Amino acid sequence: MVDPEIRVLTIDELGILRSVEEDPATGRVVVTITPTYTGCPAMDVIRADIRRALNVAGHPDAEVRTVHSPAWSTDWISESGRSKLAAAGIAPPQPVRRPGVVPLTLTLRCPRCGSPETEQLSRFGSTACKALWRCRSCSEPFDHLKAL
Amino acid sequence: MNGPFEFALRLGDDALIAAQRLAEWTTRAPEMEEDIALANIALDQLGAARLLLTYAGELEGAGRDEDALAYLRDDREFRNCLLVELPNDDFAVTMAKLLFLSAYQLPLYTALAECADERLAAIGSKARKESAYHLDHASLWVKRLGDGTEESHRRMQAAADQVWPYVAELFTPDPGAPVDPATLRAEFDATVTAVLTEATLARPESGWAPAGGRDGLHTEHLSYLLAEMQVLHRAHPGAKW
């Protein structure tokens, strides 16, 4: 299942799918997810998508639970997820250094031309989890999934 | 100011009213990037508000959910601090408000993440990461305006002076609460002083310190905000898209 806002990677690769369990007695499936940001408006769509997919797979009574602890971190994005982000022109996040502190970004490579000559235009981008950057070499703006 | 319900309600109302005020900048911010930034910060505040008000409703046990608490209470029943309900005013005033609010919310949520209440701890551990970005954003603007032109410096200083009296209320002691706000003052002062100093601004003198928000005694601005926020839900109870 792909993320509805960043349609190149799955919710598993993004790290928001925490677990999928099947009750051995009843056969009921319980899916646990966690939001990237507290106000992420995509959560309702993600829940609906999961229910729809499970319904098609023969689990009409599946339950989708939302948990907030431990809080989602960009460190949970898988290697394949990072590669897919970069391939889609979204600079992947750098490792989080310390909890609660905004990490200092030294340089970010342009996902289009690879140049390190980039600058931040805005800390907040098209969705809650992204910042807006621009490459000074190829002049293209690009999204950056900010470390959290 | 007693009980876990009141505590969750206070934090939830701070976040909800801050979200509603910040959202007023949408389509009106000085530049497009700032428009998106303020809308994102408002969305973070709304996300925290929804979690906190949902939990407050459960603690109360009277069957009120997040919508009932947000849309069906009158001004006297709101427990937010006065700071968040003040009008946006000049852009510098909005940034002064955001600096003071986020410099308070960051240590608050950080302390909450370590508290004994599991639900509040989960909310705190999530929200503190977002608060760090809000504080960072407000700090950058305060420095840019304070250390900018003569006019931007004058207006940023005036904004800080105008909003400063409302800071005292944030730290009203509440020793029985999961996090006593009074314990957050030192970190708030250190953060804010560092930002103001770098911005070449003077830290305002403390004097007149209006309060009452935690007891439901608000400025006239809250009623107008609530009227706009609640009108749809009150006119069409339970309306859905």
Automatic annotation (TrEMBL), chain B:
The gene is paaI. NCBIfam families: PA_CoA_Oxy3 (TIGR02158). GO terms for biological process: phenylacetate catabolic process. SUPFAM superfamilies: Ferritin-like. This is Phenylacetate-CoA oxygenase subunit PaaI. It comes from Micromonospora musae. Gene3D superfamilies: 1.20.1260.10. One of its GO terms (cellular component) is cytosol.
